[in-house]
TrEMBL record:
<feature type="transmembrane region" description="Helical">
    <location>
        <begin position="92"/>
        <end position="118"/>
    </location>
</feature>
<feature type="transmembrane region" description="Helical">
    <location>
        <begin position="15"/>
        <end position="34"/>
    </location>
</feature>
<protein>
    <recommendedName>
        <fullName>NADH:ubiquinone reductase (H(+)-translocating)</fullName>
        <ecNumber>7.1.1.2</ecNumber>
    </recommendedName>
</protein>
<feature type="transmembrane region" description="Helical">
    <location>
        <begin position="281"/>
        <end position="301"/>
    </location>
</feature>
<feature type="transmembrane region" description="Helical">
    <location>
        <begin position="333"/>
        <end position="354"/>
    </location>
</feature>
<feature type="domain" description="NADH:quinone oxidoreductase/Mrp antiporter transmembrane">
    <location>
        <begin position="12"/>
        <end position="293"/>
    </location>
</feature>
<feature type="transmembrane region" description="Helical">
    <location>
        <begin position="154"/>
        <end position="172"/>
    </location>
</feature>
<dbReference type="GO" id="GO:0008137">
    <property type="term" value="F:NADH dehydrogenase (ubiquinone) activity"/>
</dbReference>
<feature type="transmembrane region" description="Helical">
    <location>
        <begin position="207"/>
        <end position="234"/>
    </location>
</feature>
<dbReference type="GO" id="GO:0016020">
    <property type="term" value="C:membrane"/>
</dbReference>
<dbReference type="InterPro" id="IPR001750">
    <property type="entry name" value="ND/Mrp_TM"/>
</dbReference>
<keyword id="KW-1133">Transmembrane helix</keyword>
<dbReference type="Pfam" id="PF00361">
    <property type="entry name" value="Proton_antipo_M"/>
</dbReference>
<keyword id="KW-0812">Transmembrane</keyword>
<feature type="transmembrane region" description="Helical">
    <location>
        <begin position="179"/>
        <end position="195"/>
    </location>
</feature>
<feature type="transmembrane region" description="Helical">
    <location>
        <begin position="46"/>
        <end position="72"/>
    </location>
</feature>
<keyword id="KW-0472">Membrane</keyword>
């Protein structure tokens, strides 16, 4: 249902169908977040996601009501054409309607300062649900944001807050899923920056960034699921290089790629977005993005240091001895291998993604 909702969202061109597609995937994620029976943390995650999701849905409907009531239609291109036709519409109502729709979508994307639900929901939900929540909806919301563009510079505000919060929020985290939640907030800042610029090259850079982020997230979450960590603590990765060296190398390369360390693929995505920002004279945002990337690299490198240079604590060693030996099943191994292959292939030959993104963005212009 989540995947179906995202597919419908990508192909929607009417505000009513956009709302139905969003709710189809969101309501399914409500249930998945709280599906772990007997877990108060999972129930809390589902409840928080439900309350804030209902709030953002209300904002979205109110914004749609303002725009559709003014123009007399529900089709996105028709509304944009009517608003740009020079007719005498109330600018206040148009601005409020666009702002409410944009804020609702930023809620769904966990963009700062509307990210308050993400760390708790990511941590409390089952890991499979967290992976689904962090990966699948991003592409659908990206397509809608590209189609409607920026509204009263709210995207630029989201870019600045997301980069700052994503870099500083994860520094003191001890759980890997909370760290990935703040990491996602920071990455959404880079994606929104390309949409805010609005040029062909910047949207192409944002699309490539989203694709690479999805691939790297699949690889990370598949590895975490394969390890079957007890509490999803970062220190549980200690000694992984001795017990599972291949898996340790995969996880280390993926985290370094997410950090944007050259010549890995994460650097390619950030470089393309930064280049488009420099071309369009976003110099202050460029400086903030570079500083936040350096700060964010600290906690990714810290995980790599724990994997290779920190032994497991005595408590974790004793808990592992009580558990039976965990074998990685074929599906998880295949998923991890496919993700790592794409990361390595893109590092040496990125032309495929560049061409696909060029064709995809060309349809919008």
């Amino acid at each position: 249902m989540v995947v179906l909702g995202s597919l419908c969202l990508v192909s929607s061109s009417n505000w009513l169908s956009v709302y139905l597609a969003i709710e189809l995937s969101t309501l399914s994620l409500f249930i998945l977040a709280a599906q772990r029976g007997g877990s108060g943390q999972s129930a809390e995650a589902g409840l928080k996601y439900f309350v804030l999701g209902a709030l953002s849905s209300g904002l979205f409907l109110f914004g749609c009501a303002l725009l559709c009531g003014l123009t007399g239609g529900t089709h996105i291109s028709y509304i944009n054409l009517a608003l740009n036709s020079g007719l005498d519409f109330s600018e206040v109502r148009v601005s409020i309607g666009s702002l409410l729709i944009m804020v609702s979508l930023l809620f769904k994307l966990s963009v700062a300062p509307f990210h308050m639900w993400a760390p708790d929901v990511y941590d409390g939900a089952p890991t499979t649900t967290t992976a689904l929540l962090a990966i699948v909806p991003k592409v659908g919301y990206f397509s809608i944001l590209v189609s409607i563009g920026s509204a009263v510079n709210v995207l630029l505000v989201g870019v600045l807050f997301s980069m700052f919060v994503g870099a500083l929020g994860a520094l003191n985290q001890t759980k890997v899923k909370r760290l990935l939640a703040y990491s996602g907030v920071g990455h959404m800042g880079f994606v929104l920056w390309g949409i805010e610029v609005g040029s062909f090259e910047s949207i192409q850079a944002s699309l490539i960034y989203v694709i690479l982020y999805v691939i790297m997230s699949i690889c990370v979450f598949a590895t975490i699921l394969a390890l079957s960590t007890a509490k999803s603590l970062i220190v549980e990765f200690g000694g992984l290089s001795r017990s599972l060296p291949v898996l340790a190398l995969t996880l280390a390369l993926t985290f370094l790629s997410i950090a944007g360390v050259p010549p890995l693929v994460g650097f390619l995505g950030k470089w393309l977005v930064l280049l488009s920002g420099i071309v369009h004279q976003y110099y202050l945002v460029f400086l903030l993005a570079v500083m936040c990337s350096v700060v964010a690299g600290v906690y990714y490198v810290r995980i790599v240091k724990i994997i290779y240079f920190q032994a497991s604590s005595s408590f974790l060693i004793s808990s592992k001895m009580l558990k039976k030996e965990n074998w990685i099943n074929f599906r998880k191994a295949l998923l991890i291998g496919a993700g790592l292959y794409v990361i390595g292939f893109t590092m040496f030959s990125p032309n495929l993604w560049l061409q696909l993104a060029h064709w995809a963005v060309g349809g919008l212009f």
